[in-house]
């Protein structure tokens, strides 16, 4: 009986399936012979080569993990090594709380990893799936007797056949951080002897983070929300103008205290008759307390949302939430709308919390005519010769351009008008807003946020400087010393 076409096809299919299963089985056996992590004693043991150790001598020369890089391509993340089955890594020289650490993965052995290491904190953790190795770099030699028989050094000569298995590296991630400026900012914080504080610098208009320096390397002070004090008056002013509750020409009167039932608040000085712009420049508590009471909760909450206060302020990258320890801002933790709560919140006390990064973003939004962008921390990803450059998201409108212009005038006057609260820095080409947040322990947070301009009067960098939880006189002294050290090498630019 002659075989039919269908029978022939069936035989070929069965034969092919048999060959495929045989190949899979042989492949698994070879894999088990060559590479197997050994688990013992409750922790990861050393990586062991299970082929005949008499013939094979292998060592790993590179774990293949990608690097975190500075904006100029210099390596930021320190190298890691595998010693006695445990990942060893020294902290980064600068910004170790940002780079993060590498350690044992939660699950090991793991089909998704070739080595027992994983990002545990910071960018190493957030970008672990991009950075992790697909195969390490291995070098070794196969020792073979001259006649192909068993090794016996006393009887037969031995030849060595060297070989290398090239790494399949993870991707390198290029950050926006400027190594020189980051190092200089940390040096300034150390020189002024700040225990808790930060220097943040954002490039404009892109909002790329160039500096994210913290005095505390256990957890970044630049990303931790704190009471902002009078820098929050920028938000109150924006809400007042955007809602048309107050015109730019509005005039106020301050005799040193707020005259409102059940509200006890004193201004830091009696300003007398004062304009909207001068109220910003001279940081009049009475003016902004009255505005806050008049506006109520909703307009200020809506304005704060448009300014990104209720997020960390850091843009995600390829679906990765960067620096998960970064705080969102807080506004109106308490319920109710009594006048005292509204007045205190309007001047940045009571329920308000924001991080130095969010303060720099608020200043960047004013500098960019009311256009808000989240901070961009990643410039791109590089693998071999291929580089993928990241394009920041489009901005969104946080406030009207006219509103931003009025507030800009107040911030410039704060530095360059004789009665401005930052007039001590008048030689610098900056527009700024100061802030003093009173804390329950009697200490204060001292703030300075704003933006720098170039010789064409164009905003080029937004910034936030902060000294946290120190005695009032010491906090402000250190803040202005920081500002002079940080901006002191900038050329003088005439007022716009």
The figure for the number of domains is 2
Which CATH C-level class of the largest domain is it? Alpha Beta
Major pleated sheet: 5 strands, antiparallel
Q: Count the strands?
A: 22
Structural shape: elongated
Mean pLDDT: 84
CATH architecture of the largest domain: 3-Layer(aba) Sandwich
Structural class: alpha+beta
Helix content: 25-40%
Tally of alpha and pi helices: 13
Please state roughly what percent of the residues sit in beta strands, choosing from under 5%, 5-15%, 15-25%, 25-35%, 35-45% or over 45%: 15-25%
Note the gap between the termini.
101 Å
Radius of gyration: 31 Å
State the strand order across the main sheet: 13-12-22-21-20
> What name goes with the CATH superfamily of the largest domain?
DD-peptidase/beta-lactamase superfamily
CATH topology of the largest domain: Beta-lactamase
Spans of at least 5 consecutive residues whose pLDDT stays below 50 are 29-52, 491-496
Domain Penicillin-binding protein transpeptidase: 226-475
Transmembrane segments: 12-35
Organism: Alicyclobacillus fodiniaquatilis
InterPro entries: Beta-lactam/transpept (IPR050515), Beta-lactam/transpept-like (IPR012338), PCN-bd_Tpept (IPR001460)
Could you give the topology of this structure?
Layout: H1 5-34, E1 36-40, E2 43-48, E3 56-62, E4 68-69, E5 80-83, E6 86-89, H2 96-99, E7 102-103, E8 118-119, H3 122-126, H4 128-131, E9 137-145, E10 158-165, E11 172-175, H5 179-191, E12 197-203, E13 208-214, H6 233-242, E14 251-254, E15 272-275, H7 276-281, H8 285-295, H9 297-306, H10 339-346, H11 356-367, E16 371-372, E17 378-383, E18 386-389, E19 396-397, H12 401-416, E20 430-438, E21 444-453, E22 459-470, H13 472-487
Helix pairs in contact: 6-8, 6-9, 8-10
Transmembrane segments: 12-35
Organism: Alicyclobacillus fodiniaquatilis
Pfam families: Transpeptidase
